[in-house]
Amino acid sequence: MTKYVGAIDQGTTSSRFIVFDKAGNIVSVAQKEHKQIYPKPGWVEHDPLEILHNTNEVIGAALARADLSASDLVSVGITNQRETTLIWDKATGKPLHNALVWQDTRVDQLCAEYAKNGGQDRFRAKTGLPLASYFSGLKLRWLLENVEGARAKAEAGEALFGTIDSWLAWNLTGGAKGGVHITDVTNASRTQLMNLASCDWDEDMLNEFKIPRACLPKILPSSTVYGEITTPTLRGAKLAGILGDQQAALVGQTCFSPGEAKNTYGTGCFMLMNTGTEPVQSKAGLLTTLAYQFDGEKPRYALEGAIAITGALVQWLRDNMKLFDVAPQIEPLAKSVEDNGDVYIVPAFSGLYAPYWKESARGVIAGLTRFATRAHLARAALESTAYQTRDVVEAMETDSGIKLSSLKTDGGMVANELLMQFQADILDVPVIRPKVTETTALGAAYAAGLATGYWSNVEDLRANWQVDKQWTPALAADKRAHYYKSWKKAVQRSFDWVD
């Protein structure tokens, strides 16, 4: 009887369940979007119960489409939007508040307060992260201080903190009736509460941020058997893999050697480079993070360049500006002009992430003339993703001392061939799209399959990886230099907009 591995891919805008076979091919998939809640400018929330309900629904739908049941799955992995933060009641399983999404900026002022004493990088050596509203620790602090009764419950161990992986794992393995309260090293490394060297919660950081240890999940490897699933659709299956979404994509792209890198093009853009068993401290504005840890092995580290807004800019042009009706229409619209008409969009909607880390930046459109059309705006939006990626690549090369020879890509935007070609042009290296572009879910499946012997080792996984298409640079050097110089000028204009 053929066996498969399942992956829950809980993202910023939707939840999916994907079933993979031994060759890493997709057997079945189901997906459902959830609401984005914006209570105030800069605040972004999700309803954890809606996410849980949708996750259970897509699991059932994907299995039904392939006429499969839980007994056909060797194991199941979870990959999740990282940093999105929630607390829930241990006895009832009810969230005490909506989840605060990674894009949420309500702790800006708190970050600024901490930065007054020791600067933005005061915790970087220990955690790999600068002070920024992006990470979970201060979001948890906000919840503890602003939700009635939350701190008292958390201190008593009656309220549990988690990123979305912890919330799903707890609910899948029994919830209030004995669910496991866990996270993996990759998600823990995004809280700013974990010590990079020990891969455990750091007492000093907990004291600094006023976080009670009693509410925190246990930190485990990314690939190990966590427990048995008890929910109806997956009853009896083993939960055996957890990876934050970007680390999952690194595993899905089989970047197991130091210097191997991937870039995921989604709501935001996230580039990770494997740096091996030692953390590399960034001097160029990148994050030092956990790449993955397989059971019984040393943790592997990565440098990460996180870009807040890429695919979300396409959504903004669609929904707020009404430039087109559906996202794929941006490509023919952008192609209808031969260049950007010297228009540049810096989408600093919630500040700029790597390598700038400017909380006070806001979005700008620069270079407008009467010549500019909606087609030029569409093209400038796509190009902004490629420019932001080059900013990160240059920082990564500076930190690691390794010159990028090619870029493996994945995520929703890689279907856009105009973007992929421009990415190769502006980086001046080949850009490669793999056959299976759902590398985030695939990475979670790989972690779960390795833990349960479905795949024997990483060489089995490397053998699955195949090229779908490669783009080679075709832009004249002088044009490349002009475009990038203009982009840098536009970025400068976005700084310090918020006082």
Q: Any chance you could write out the topology, listing elements then pairs?
A:
Blueprint: E1 4-10, E2 14-20, E3 26-33, E4 45-46, H1 48-65, E5 73-80, E6 85-89, E7 99-100, H2 108-115, H3 124-127, H4 136-146, H5 150-155, E8 159-163, H6 164-172, E9 182-184, H7 185-188, E10 194-195, E11 200-201, H8 203-209, E12 218-220, E13 223-228, E14 238-244, H9 245-252, E15 261-265, E16 269-276, E17 287-292, E18 300-307, H10 311-319, H11 330-335, E19 344-346, E20 364-366, H12 374-400, E21 407-410, H13 417-427, E22 431-434, H14 439-451, H15 458-464, E23 467-471, H16 477-494
Parallel strand pairs: 1-5, 5-14, 9-12, 15-21, 21-22
Antiparallel strand pairs: 1-2, 2-3, 4-7, 6-8, 10-11, 13-14, 15-16, 16-18, 17-18, 19-20, 22-23
Task: Give descriptors for this structure.
499 residues; 7-stranded mixed sheet; 6-stranded mixed sheet
Would you mind describing this structure in some detail?
The structure is a single chain. This protein has 499 residues and is α+β, with helices and mostly antiparallel strands. The chain contains 16 helices and 23 strands. The chain has helices spanning 48-65, 108-115, 124-127, 136-146, 150-155, 164-172, 185-188, 203-209, 245-252, 311-319, 330-335, 374-400, 417-427, 439-451, 458-464, 477-494; strands at residues 4-10, 14-20, 26-33, 45-46, 73-80, 85-89, 99-100, 159-163, 182-184, 194-195, 200-201, 218-220, 223-228, 238-244, 261-265, 269-276, 287-292, 300-307, 344-346, 364-366, 407-410, 431-434, 467-471. The strands form seven sheets. The chain has a seven-stranded mixed sheet with strand order 17-18-16-15-21-22-23. A six-stranded mixed sheet has the order 3-2-1-5-14-13, sandwiched between helices. The protein is globular.
